[in-house]
Amino acid sequence: MSASGSPVAGRDGLAVLDAEEIRRALTRIAHEILERTHGGDEVILLGIPTRGVPLARRMAARIGEFEGLEVPCGSLDVTMHRDDLRLRPARALGRTDLPVGGVDGQTVVLVDDVLYSGRTVRAALDALTDLGRPRAVQLAVLVDRGHRELPIRADYVGKNLPTSQREVVHVLLAEVDGVDAVVIGEGRPS
Amino acid sequence: MKRHLISAADLSRGDALLILDTAEELASLADRPIKKLPTLRGRTVVNLFFEDSTRTRISFEAAAKRLSADVINFSAKGSSVAKGESLKDTALTLEAMGADAVVIRHSASGAAHRLAGWVRGSVVNAGDGTHEHPTQALLDAFTIRRRLKGTSTRGSGLDDLRVTIVGDVLHSRVARSNVLLLSTLGAEVTLAAPPTLLPFAVNTWPCAVSYDLDNELPKSDVVMMLRVQQERMTAAYFPSVREYSRRYGLDAARMARLPEHAIVMHPGPMNRGVEIAADVADSPRSTIVEQVANGVTTRMAVLYLLLGGTEFPAVAQ
Which residue has the higher pLDDT, A4 or B185? Predict the structure, then answer.
C-alpha cells in the first residue's frame, strides 16, 4: 500500500533497492513460484493495480524465459471491496482483466508491490471470491514492511523491510514511474 | 464531483470522464458469474418517481442493487401524494427514514434542485419536467464513446465527433442534458428540428441549430432521435404527424445518407413510425438496446461516486 504520488527522491528518500536488486528479487520469486507450484502448471498471476500489474507481467516473463511456459497474467482491482472506502472521497477504479478461462480451479498468485496492513490483500481475497473458485491463492510481494493488522502473510517476498509506521515506502517501476527503485522516506506526521 | 447530480452543467470535463471511466470498469461486471459488488452495503437509495417511468426506475433500481444498496421505491400513484402531500413533506418523510440518496423524477422543472435544499443525502435528477435528465446524457456519452472510440478509451472525450439531435427539443430534457454534456466532452452538437419545437433562447446553448435534417445527415457521426412528446404538447407544433415524420423522421432512405460508421440513438420509449421507422430502430446501427444496458452501468458509476466515499459534510445549501 504505497502512496500513489511520486515522491521526490533524494530529499529524505533513501533507496533501499535499486533496479538490479529488484530484478534479482523478481527472478528469485519467479523460481520460487515454479518450485512451489511444481512447474507452474495451472498458475495465474494477478497483479493488484497500480504497481502490482507490471510486477506480475515481469514475473510471468521471467517464468517464460526459464521454463518456456506461458503463465496467464491479469489484473484484479480491489477498490470496490476495500474497508476504508468511507474514509476518503470516492476514488477512481483500476482495471480488472482476467485471463481467458477465468480463475476456476487455478492456482492464483496475487502480486502487489508493498505488503503493509494486509487490508488490500483481504479486499483482493473478497474480490476473487466473486470471480470464481481458485484451487489455491498465494501472495507475492516485492516488499514486506510489517505492521500487519490482519492475519495475512506473503508466500513470496522480494525483501523484508523493517519500517516504522511513520515512514512511507514507495515502489517505483519503469512502466509507471520511469525508473526502478524502492525508496523509503519520512511520512508526514499524522 | 459535487454532492448532487442535478444538471449536466454541474459536471466538469474531469467529472464526466471520471464517471465514464468508472462505468467502463463496471461494465465488465455484467459478464461475471456474480453481478454484485459489496460497495454500498448498508446505504439506502430512494427512488422517488412522480412521473411514470419504466426503464429509468428499473435501471436505477438495478444499479443500486448491484452495488448492494437497499432500494426503496416510491411512486406517486397510490401514495400519500395522491392525498395532497407536498414535495417538501414527502422529502422530510424520506429524510426521517434515512435515505442516503434520493433519485427523483418529477413533472416540474426544478423539482430536483428544490429537493436538494431539503434533504441531507445526495439528490440525483432522473428527469425534471422539460429541464434535464443528466444520467441519460451520461449513458448516451458512454454509448457513443464505446461504439465509436472502442473500449480502451480511459480518459478520452468525444472530441471531433459530430452529434445531431433531432426532433422535439422543446419538450426534451434529454436534449438539453446531452447538449451540455456532449459539448463539455468536446463533441460538436447540432439540433435539427422544426422552429416550433426549438426552445426560446436556444441560441445561447453550446450547439448549432438547423431546420434541415437531410443537410446534416451526411456529416453526422451520431444521430439522436427524440420522442415526439405528445403528452406534453398543449398547442399545435406541426400540421400533422405524417408531415413531421416526412421531414424529421428517420427512415431507411435517410439512414442510407449517413456515413458508414454512424450510429442511430434513441432514449426511448420510441414512437415507431413517427420519429423513427421500425426497420431503422431494429438495424445493427441502432444502439437503442445497448443504451438500456449501458444505463445500468453508468448509473452504478454515478451512485458509486456520489455514495462510495466519505460522507459529504452536512452543509445547508
Answer: B185
